[in-house]
Amino acid sequence: MSYSNKVIDHYNNPRNVGSMDKNSAEVGTGLVGAPECGDVMKLQIKVNPATNVIEDAKFKTFGCGSAIASSSLATEWVKGKTIDEALAIKNTEIVKELSLPPVKIHCSVLAEDAIRAAIGDWKKKQSTPVAVAEAKV
Amino acid sequence: MWLGHSCPRRPASKIKLEEGRSVNRLMATDVNTATVAAAHSCWSCGDMRAAQFCKACGKVQPPEPVDYFSFFGLPRKLNIDTSTLEREFYSLSRKLHPDIYAGSKSQEQEWSLEQSSRLNDAYRILKDPIRRTEYLLKLEGVELEGQSKAATEEARKTGEKKQIVPPDLLEEVFELNMQLEELRATKKLGEEDPALIQELQAHKQSLEMKFNTLFDELKGYWDEWDSADKCHNEQERRRVRDKMVDLLNRRSYIRNLVRDVNEVLEA
């Protein structure tokens, strides 16, 4: 089995690696992992509260090439999308885009989980702004 | 009656509700353990056969698709008598050894080979406490490999965030990986960072301790599982099962982490 060219490209030139301030009210953070392989993936989004559009996305993944490529692609895809559009991204689309073999499907699952977790975190901050402000102190 | 004396009494309504299911379960258990032999007869003499040999004429039998507990004639429990298991294993190994069947019919030779390899698989799984637990969970329908995907599908439906790995553990795994990456980069530059190495070593030690604690914790649930199973307490079975799955997940994360830390420290 070998990695597809797209996986190799994302692995060698990962897009949007980095992190944002997880305490910021505009930032949603998703930290997910898969116990079977020990991978851990952090994906962050910065959302414009007026438009609900994801303006920026960052990730940091510890795992295999497919996990890194899946999360790199996920950050590319969510950027410019609204929250609802981003929630509609399915792992199968990532599998297709990266031509992931069956044994690596769980990496795409993880990326989808990360998007959902980041959006969930952001939504929670929007509904409890007071609690967030307190947590920062 | 199948209800053991040690099983706590439950409200009458509940017993009634579960009666039907319990009877089914009881039958299923019987088929898997004691009476499996009665279901099939020996190919040679037609008498009753056990998992490996005919009880009457002693001829080797074709492998039965029974679970590993039944293969050894053991009850499907997490607390098993490992000395009985070992004794049975050596005894069966001798009796099933393909060399003994060198002069027999080719079909018997083949069966002894298949039975021997099944014997080895069964023994390898059952004697190892972790593998035994994982195996029993698998018999219970828990696929440790596939649970991540299943949880995602569930999360997609409900719109909830899925959580099969505890958040505190994820944070720790992430932070430790950051440190490992830092140390790898430092080493690449040919520099030394004794403080970071020390920190990682301390972290590794605490992880190893946690790893051992998790094992003890898991063993603590064996009794709970076996008694819930014996009492056919579905609710309790589910609770203990989920707890064991959680512990096994934590354990595999920590095992991978320790492996990664060792790799970097020894590089």
Structure description:
The complex is a heterodimer of chains A (137) and B (267). By secondary structure, chain A is an alpha+beta fold. Chain A has one domain (5-128): Sufe protein. Chain: A (Alpha-Beta Complex), CATH 3.90.1010.10. Chain A contains 6 helices and 3 strands; from the N terminus they run H-E-E-E-H-H-H-H-H. In chain A, a hairpin with a 4-residue loop joins strand 1 (27-34) and strand 2. In chain A, helix 2 packs across helix 5 and helix 4 packs across helix 5 (105-127). In chain B, helix 4 (82-96) packs antiparallel against helix 5 (106-127) and helix 8 (167-188) runs antiparallel to helix 9. The termini of chain B are far apart. The A-B interface holds A 31-38, 40, 42, 60, 62, 90-91, 105-106, 109-110, 112-113, 116-117, 120 and B 144-145, 148-149, 152, 155-156, 160-162, 164-165, 167, 169-171, 173-174, 177, 181, 248-250, 252-253, 255-257, 260.
**How many domains would you count in the coordinates of chain B?**
2
What is the percent of helical residues of chain B? 55-70%
Low-confidence runs of chain B: 1-5, 11-38
What would you call the shape of chain B? extended
Q: What ranges of chain A have pLDDT less than 50 throughout 5 or more consecutive residues?
A: none
Fraction of residues in H or I helices of chain A:
40-55%
Count of separate DSSP helical elements of chain A: 6
Determine the strand fraction of chain A and express it as a percent band: 15-25%
Sheet of most strands of chain A: 3 strands, antiparallel
**What is the average per-residue confidence, as pLDDT of chain A, rounded to a whole number?**
89
Using the coordinates shown, work out and report the CATH topology of chain A: Sufe protein. Chain: A
Which architecture of chain A would the CATH scheme give at its second level? Alpha-Beta Complex
The computed structural class of chain B is: mainly alpha
Largest sheet of chain B: none
Any idea what the shape of chain A is? globular
Radius of gyration of chain A: 15 Å
